[in-house]
Design a protein that fits this description.
Layout lengths: L11 H21 E7 L5 E5 L3 E6 L4 E7 H4 L4 E4 L2 E4 L12 E6 L4 E5 L3 E4 L2 E2 L2 E7 L3 E8 L2 E7 L3 E8 L2 E8 L2 E8 L2 E8 L2 E4 L3 E12 L2 E18 L2 E16 L2 E5 L3 E7 L3 E4 L3
């Protein structure tokens, strides 16, 4: 007769020991994280590299807080050069990752992220702002008021802005990334897309002057944006969707298509199989 074998499950006491060990590991990891605060820094531009996280907010003074392991915080993982604060590297050139930066700035003029990092910008009101992303990371802006605003993206990353109030807005995208706006209130909007990425506006918005240049296979979807006048240039197989009230000027070279809503006066020049189509409201 073949003897029977039974599988003995760990006892409740053993499971409690395992749970206690895991808790100790978690507490140890939490305890090993430190926060360093730095004040008295004079800067208006912030540049971050690597796979780090950054939160920016407006305040009455410039401050910097860094959260990470003790070994990551020495030497200090930031450099101040002129009016630019560099994050993600120390003065000796050592790169760091997986840090959390929290920056308070009186007046932000420029934000640049390179790599796979993430940046979050809380409501901000400044005269002019330039935001750029190079890589696979992401930048999220919640509520931006800036008479002069420029958003630049190179690579496969993503830039999102929930609400934008501006007089002049420029969106530049090169690669297969995405630029997504929620609500946009601006006088003039210029969009330049080269590659296979997408530019979209998700909420009802208005603009006086719209200028779109599309090179490649990407898509510009702005049907929730109402423009008084628009100029569109498409080279390649990309598509553009817009809404125009008064005047529309279109040039297409290739197989790209323009789909528009509204009843503007239209002038067109097409070389290739591309098309201009009016869509009923």
């Amino acid at each position: 007769m073949t003897p029977s074998h039974t599988c003995q499950l760990p006892s409740a006491h053993a499971w409690r020991q395992v749970g206690a060990s895991l808790l100790l590991v978690m507490l140890s990891a939490a305890a090993s994280a430190e926060v360093r605060s730095v004040e008295g820094l004079e800067f208006s531009k912030v540049r971050m590299q690597g796979s780090n996280q950054l939160e920016i907010s407006s305040g009455d003074s410039n401050t910097l807080k860094i959260r990470g392991g003790e070994h990551q915080l020495e030497p200090p993982p930031f450099v101040l050069d002129g009016d630019t604060l560099y994050l993600g590297a120390s003065a000796d050139g050592r790169s760091v990752a997986d840090l959390k930066y929290k920056v308070t700035v009186v007046q932000l003029q420029e934000l640049a992220v390179a790599g796979s990092g993430e940046a979050f910008v809380k409501p901000i009101d400044v005269p002019a702002l330039e935001v750029s992303l190079d890589g696979s990371g992401s930048i999220r802006l919640y509520d931006v008021t800036a008479p002069d605003l420029e958003l630049q993206l190179v690579g496969s990353g993503e830039i999102q802005a929930a609400k934008v109030h501006s007089q002049r807005t420029r969106l530049q995208l090169k690669g297969d990334g995405d630029v997504q706006l929620g609500e946009l209130q601006t006088q003039s909007l210029k969009v330049h897309l080269a590659g296979s990425g997408d530019v979209t506006i998700e909420q009802e918005s208005r603009v006086n002057s719209l200028d779109i240049g599309l090179l490649g296979s990407g898509d510009v979807v702005l049907e929730r944006l109402t423009a008084e006048a628009a100029k569109v240039s498409i080279v390649g197989s990309g598509d553009v969707t817009i809404r125009v009230r008064e005047q529309l000027e279109v040039e297409i070279m290739g197989s790209g298509d323009l789909l528009y809503r509204g009843d503007p006066t239209v002038s067109r020049s097409i070389l290739g199989s591309g098309d201009v189509t009016r869509k009923a409201d």
